[in-house]
Amino acid sequence: MVQEFNKVGVVGLGTMGAGIVEVFARAGFHVTGVEIDTSALERGQNHVQTSLERAVSKGKLTAEEQGAIMGRIAFSSTREDLGDADFVVEAVPERMDIKRDVFTDLDSICPPGTILATNTSSLSVTEIAALTRRQEQVVGLHFFNPAPVMKLAEVVGTVNTAPGTLEVVTEVAKRIGKTPVTVTDRAGFVANALLVPYLNHAASVYERGIASREEIDTAITKAAEFPMGPLTLLDMVGLDVSLAVMEVLWEEFRQPRYVPSPLLRRMVSAGLLGRKSGRGFYDYSTGKNPAEE
Ligand code: 3HC
């Protein structure tokens, strides 16, 4: 079945969606990236283009390969263009009302055999699946930022996901060069349930004035050889996304270690979301990350 699994749809072309389009196209799939907001569609297209150009300039791709990859990608502002997709990955913002709109639409547009996956990091896959009439063919396929680089893909099954669907999606994850792990639909799945409380804790350490932001980041990069310190990583992942994960962990488990840091909450309220808004723990308005200076 996976061999015939040729046309993929990606709905939502923010940073994650654009990265997911690139991953599938590089692995040889024909991909249609759908974004109904036309300026976001243009940004998503540019994101893919720039990422491939960077790979060419580094000698990781030839210009021919780049052309072939772009030739496998179609961009569209209409979900109806996914009427012949075998597999669709949703990567729209983390709001249930938006997911509802997308999944009810996809359920009526896509043929009965199409598998629908959500890249959600903070909403229940079970709740999303229940929006459709094909719960056995709905899964979570959770990528990590930056999607073209990070190797993990969490394959999230619900009580209603068919074992065959999990097998196919696990196989697809391998074909796109990811290392799949199969997990149950619980808040934070596995990786975020471990990682995001650590990031949240770093925000608390900063809030308590124990060390400067640079010292906190340096402590971790040098102590544990992590590629990024936690405050830099929070800025990259997005403070809003991290807060959303903390909130579902708290909601589901009610354990003190999942209480969101007050500073994180205030920064999100103030619009300091990290790189995407130009400022988080660091200021990116100059185009440079001060943590790297
Ligand atoms: N898109 C595509 N490729 C990118 C990229 C991006 N945004 N950022 C970096 N890359 C590529 C570079 O092109 C380079 O590729 P190459 O090896 O083929 O030349 C490679 O990644 C390394 O990049 P750089 O040399 O520029 O920079 P670094 O060595 O500092 O690596 C990093 C950057 C890969 C982001 C690294 O710092 C890292 O791994 N950081 C940790 C990221 C992480 O933990 N992500 C998980 C976050 S949690 C999450 O996403 C879950 C969510 O639900 C909250």
UniProtKB/TrEMBL annotation:
Keywords: Oxidoreductase. Residues 188-284 form the 3-hydroxyacyl-CoA dehydrogenase C-terminal domain. Residues 7-185 form the 3-hydroxyacyl-CoA dehydrogenase NAD binding domain. One of its GO terms (biological process) is fatty acid beta-oxidation. The chain holds residues 1 to 293 of 399 of the full protein. It comes from the Bacteria. This is 3-hydroxybutyryl-CoA dehydrogenase. Pathway: Lipid metabolism; butanoate metabolism. The keyword Manganese does not apply. One of its GO terms (molecular function) is 3-hydroxybutyryl-CoA dehydrogenase activity. Belongs to the 3-hydroxyacyl-CoA dehydrogenase family.
